[in-house]
């Protein structure tokens, strides 16, 4: 079988190449295309005041999120909990005590949900 590098022997004094390990290529640090996992703290509160004694779970203090995304999150939470809800005054209101389900969905969306209040 012929030597594929046989023609290089005729060139004479070639450098030997790098010694030791090959250089380490830089690791890709761009987060573009990945889910944002640090979108800030969101407070989750259960309220009954002025609602006829019925509990409502409210997520508030969203930072840097627009109304369309809040409405999309509200729809996702409503479907997961099987209840109604709305976006009012920049807060997501879901009928019933659904704090755990709301926390799970907000965590998946990259927020840091915290139970606030009593």
TrEMBL record:
Keywords: Protein biosynthesis, Translation regulation. Residues 8-39 are annotated as: Disordered. GO terms for molecular function: translation initiation factor activity. It comes from the Bacteria. InterPro entries: SUI1 (IPR001950), SUI1_arc_bac (IPR005872), SUI1_dom_sf (IPR036877). The keyword Protein biosynthesis applies. Residues 43-110 form the SUI1 domain. GO terms for biological process: regulation of translation. This is SUI1 domain-containing protein. It comes from Roseibacillus persicicus.
């Amino acid at each position: 079988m012929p030597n594929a590098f046989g023609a290089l022997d005729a060139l004479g004094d070639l450098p030997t190449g790098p010694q030791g390990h090959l250089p380490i290529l830089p690791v890709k640090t761009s987060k573009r295309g990945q889910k944002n996992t640090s979108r800030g703290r969101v407070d989750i509160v259960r309220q009954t005041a002025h609602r006829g004694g019925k509990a409502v779970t409210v997520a508030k203090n969203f930072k840097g999120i627009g109304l369309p995304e809040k409405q999309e999150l509200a729809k996702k939470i409503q479907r997961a909990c099987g209840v109604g809800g709305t976006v009012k005054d920049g807060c997501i209101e879901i009928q019933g005590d659904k704090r755990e389900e709301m926390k799970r969905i907000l965590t998946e969306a990259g927020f840091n949900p915290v139970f606030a209040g009593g």
